[in-house]
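step: validate -> pass
step: tokenize input -> pass
step: predict -> running
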Amino acid sequence: MSPPKIGFRAPARPTELREPPRPARNEVKPQAKAQVTRPGMSGVSQFESPPARQQPVALNAPAALARGPSVAPGSYPTAADVRNIAAMQDPVARNHAITQGYSDLSNAMGQLLGTENANWSTFATWASKQAGVSIRGEDMPKFFTDALKGADGVMGPMSKVDDLLRKLGLPSLPLGDIASAGNQALQNVSKAIADGNKLVFEEVGQEFARFVETFQGDTQYDAAKAEQYLSGFPADKPLLKEAFGHYAQAMFEKDPNKKAELMLLANDKVGLHEQTQLQPYVEKALNSPVKDTFRDILKQTVEAQINALPFPANLAGKAALKTGLVDAALNPVVDGVANVFRRVATEHMMKLAVPGSALKLGNDLPPPPGMESTLFPPHLRSIENPELRALLGQLDKSQDSLKGSGAKDWSKLDQRMNYIVDLFRSRQSDPALFDPPFGQRGTYPVAPSAPRVS
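step: predict -> pass
step: emit ->
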């Protein structure tokens, strides 16, 4: 499958259906009165039509229909493109295409709703790009190995294992084997993140594409059209339905305060929906059975070393395996290594790089630059929308503050949402979030192809 092509392209601008300019009704334009005469037409200007040939002007002729902002075809992924991207089998290539797709959907939504307020897809761009770091496993192996060397809970038990191995005539347990086990555990984490990344994009991305297709070109809110559009949402996705209803209202809202609050309400509802969908994937990533992974690989290493010894030198080693002596020695190492891995993996995952800063999800959100005293952008410093106030009352543990926003346990849905609603509110007016994540815009369509082995 071909991912979206990325290349330099002038930003798409809203297109309008225009008629050629024509003079206002009964307008008299100053003209040179050239008196070109010929037989039978003395004194008649040749720059004007003869009176007998003039067409009657309909005084009640309808004006040209106004047209709202439109998005250039091929500048954002359609619903079909979203499905084709989600069907890609290579998790790294798929994540790259998802991140680009989110950005281009964000840009398309920005052309309809304005870029004064980020939409959910704007934030999803950077979350997906960060997920790509974990999916690719960048830097994690080195962080893990370095952490192991300084962990007393690992190196102490390791020395006891080495003592046992020497008595059995075996070399010390290589630290590289533990790093190899860490790589295997990391692959399990990466797969869970990649699967969640695909799930959310396939579901929510199609809805953003459908919104753009439905409302581009509109100039005013049409309640009947909005209701028909919202009827296309499945009954088991009420939050998504409500969220996109708020986006439709925000598109035509003139009051900047009300519009900002509608956008935040929509963003928070999409966020709550997708984080609920992601819950099993987050738990799987953070609570993967790393102990089993480490125990299996380390024990296989010891068994291979024992089996490599000639008879009868291998008898003592085989006896140690059979009696459980090897297991007893390895268990403390496995526990220590698993604890280090979870800590490093959590720290590695709990980062979010956005334009201009890198956020640690376990720490309280810092105020945006220039908002150290106000914390939130002007139109969101006080919340008047009653539905938004009620939602924030449920999700935000410290309303109108960034204190306590850090998520100490990212596997807990309530802690994630407490962080996310503050992230959305404090950064909603940051124009840099609309920047393309890889420096350029994508082009579409994305063609389906035969499945590839990941």
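step: describe -> Residues 8-59, 450-454 have pLDDT under 50 and may be disordered.
step: cleanup -> pass
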